[in-house]
Amino acid sequence: xxxATATYRRVMALSGPVLPVISFLGRLPTAMCQLGSxxxxxxxxxxxxxxxxxGGALAAGQTVGxxxxxxxxxxHGQRTVVLAACWFDAFAVAxxxxxxxxxxxxxxxALIGLLAGAAVPQIGPLARTRLVxxxxxxxxxxxxxxxxxxxxxxxxxxxxxLGPALVGLSAxxxxxxxxxxxxxxxLAVCGSAFALHPTATALHPTAGVAxxxxxxxxxxxxxxxxxxxxxxxxxxxxxxxxVIFGACQAGITALTERLHQxxxxxxxxxxxxxxSAVAGLSLALVPARITLPTRWRAAAVALVVLSVPLLFxxxxxxxxxxxxxxxxxxxxxxITLFGLTERLVPAGRLAESMAFLTSAVVGGQxxxxxxAGRLAExxxxxxxxxxxxxxxxxxxxxxxxxxxxxxxxxPTPAAATPAGSGR
Length: 423
Known about the structure:
Elements: H1 2-15, H2 18-45, H3 48-76, H4 78-101, H5 106-118, H6 123-137, H7 142-173, H8 176-196, H9 230-258, H10 264-282, H11 292-307, H12 316-344, H13 350-379, H14 381-401, H15 403-409
Helix pairs in contact: 1-7, 2-3, 2-4, 2-7, 2-8, 3-4, 3-5, 3-13, 4-5, 4-8, 6-7, 6-13, 7-8, 7-10, 7-12, 9-10, 9-12, 9-13, 9-14, 10-12, 11-12, 11-14, 12-13, 13-14
């Protein structure tokens, strides 16, 4: 534990204490806008169908726009891209609030939601990319890189617990519009602060990222290096993780409504997120001899084993412990996939790849929430939870089938262990 604490202190020292704060506040709007838009449009239009369409448009925009913004950041640097995206997104969110309050039609609301989603500045993935570059520049070993990814993963998990909680509190005490107004303010202020932070220069604004991992690479490199095939399995696994999130959210909502305690849904989901964040921080304790492919397989097994009890939950007293224990598997799976991606992808496409993983989660969650919600309505909460179990089984299949390709494709870090050895 002492060694892990010391490693986290070294990670914090890479960027200083300010960057984690502004990056955390800057990524909160991503967690706030999905639920906030649903509540706002449902209240102002009186139509859950319209609210769902707007929420779906927002998620679709983020799924498509995330990798594109990441690619732009790889090519032109984070500062310009994040500044433009955060201000555009702030205005788009404000426009969505104004249009909803003015009771605009479904099509205008959906189009504005699509733009708001596409312009999400991807602060989470870019902060992760930036911290990894700083760690490589400082000559960090693989253990410290993994700890940096664990730290960023924990910030993500915490934001996705606190964000919906802020929306719910604002909707209860004032109006859903207040939550989205706060999101727009955070985008403008904290997004700008993240873009202008001195660490934005940690990455060179071209395909050749200035990190220690590629310090010995030849000077002449192609503008867009090819992506290893193994990366696609990781992206599919991340999308399936989003499916688990969406199916769990639908099942939890359906069960709490059936038990006449709908207000408990947010608390149950938050408890699962808190446990996931704790598990993410604990990854620093994992011995370095346990390789990333092994961690992926172990996390996949845990997802399957720990999700099966969801099928038999019938009471609130059983729901809490089951979902809290399931949360133990979430962050290890997510963080391991980020670690494998960081190891495999060309340096000049790292931001794009990190953003792609995050967008895959969003897209998978949105699709599963819609599909599992219908199943839960027709066949009960267990039907939605069955979708989560099925996604976990598919993740395990991907994890078991991918390790050989990962080892073949993995580039050797400049100061790392031999090829095929673990982190």
